[in-house]
Amino acid sequence: MSKSKVLLVSLVVAAALVASASVVMAKPIVIKFSHVVAENTPKGQMANKFKQLVDERLGGKVLVEVFPNSQLFGDNKVLEAMLLGDVQLAAPSLSKFKKYTKSLQIYDLPFLFSNMGAVEKFQQGPEGQKLLMSIKSKGLIGLGYLHNGLKQLSASSPLRVPADAKSKKFRIMSSDVLAAQFEAVGAMPLKKPFSEVFTLLQTKAIDGQENTWSNIYSKKFYEVQPYITESNHGVLDYLVITSTEFWTGLPDAIRPQIKKALDEAIAFGNKVAAQKAIADRQKIIDSKRSEVLELTAAERQQWVDAMKPVWKKFEDQIGKNYIDAAIKSN
Ligand code: LMR
After folding, report:
1. Distance 36 CA to ligand 1 centre (A)
2. How far apart are CA 270 and CA 148, in angstroms?
3. Rounded to the nearest whole angstrom, what is the distance from the C-alpha of residue 148 to the centroid of ligand 1?
4. Distance separating alpha carbons of residues 207 and 203, to the nearest angstrom
5. Could you read off the pLDDT of 102-148 as tens digits, one per residue?
6. Residues having CB within 6 Å of any atom of ligand 1
7. 36, 194 in Cβ contact below 8 A?
8. Separation of 1 CA from ligand 1 center, angstroms?
């Protein structure tokens, strides 16, 4: 081959390489973030904040697509979808990991945490951090906790003492601890996806449910539940998760930037959670659609006494060391 031909071939090869590289570079990493709640909730706001931060900092390289309101996957499917690579980020409630680990059941124990400060303290301590990795053997990684808040009981009739809940049907998340909690007061728990709760309440297929102020407000449960007992009996928080395969497959230069954006979005979501626990409660009271019942100390103690035996029942599955650490965080 003549010198000029060699030069021409080299130029063509080089141009092809540049072209293919730019095609590769032009294709962004897509992160689908699927969740089940409304956008005006702590989790909805956190997801949107994460997208905004990634757009600003990694625009063109990483594309975040947020799917709220169970649009992409309901809470009974999202973990399987993640393992199949159909979704890359989610933040299911800590009550929805039954199939993947028993330790996370700690968060469902009734009356374990006295306030959200105690929850935060436990989560940031050594046991809470260890629990982030409790699903690792199943191919999932916990990237952080996100708060929603303490749960309240809503119902079609006033619930002041445990006897008021007897024989009533309550929707619960897919947790055996939550089932035991309602059975402890003689009620009938039904495991149902979040997306079905409003209709179940509206059609009176069930009598009540437990949730946070922001979920009761944003999903309009208060419009079909005339009574809400301010019980603060349990916590509803989230584990922000991804699959090990997706996370370890990210370029080393990108992964820390995504984690940083996520940490900032979580901090933002936690602020929203604290604000909404107060503001959405007040909006419900102001709506006059639902009466908010405050318990006397003696009434509340009856719920504690009735539900607390659940701790012992799940102690071996969860691990006593975790329960002791949680008690200490109060
Ligand atoms: C529920 O199912 O009640 C909650 O987990 C929904 C959510 O994600 O806040």
Report:
1. 7
2. 7
3. 9
4. 10
5. 999 999 999 999 999 999 999 999 999 999 999 999 999 999 999 99
6. 36-37, 75, 93, 148, 173, 194, 211, 215, 236
7. yes
8. 70
What ligand 1 atom has the least distance to the C-alpha of 92?
8
Q: ∠208-211-217 over CA atoms, to 5°?
A: 95
Ligand 1 atom 2: the closest Cα is on which residue? 194
pTM over 0.70: yes
At residue 31, φ and ψ (nearest 5 deg) are -115, 105
Pairwise CA distance, residues 195 & 144, whole Å: 24
Tens digits of residue pLDDT in 238-285? 999 999 999 999 999 999 999 999 999 999 999 999 999 999 999 999
94-328, CATH topology level: D-Maltodextrin-Binding Protein; domain 2 (3.40.190)
Average predicted confidence (pLDDT) for the chain: 94
Question: Residue ranges per domain, the chain?
Answer: 94-328
Q: Give the residue among 34, 22, 20, 28 at the shortest CA–CA distance from 59.
A: 28
Q: Which of 197, 187, 22 is nearest to 93 (CA)?
A: 197
Work out the pLDDT band at 75, boundaries 50, 70, 90.
confident
Predicted pLDDT at 186: 98
Measuring from atom 3 of ligand 1, which residue has the nearest CA?
A: 194
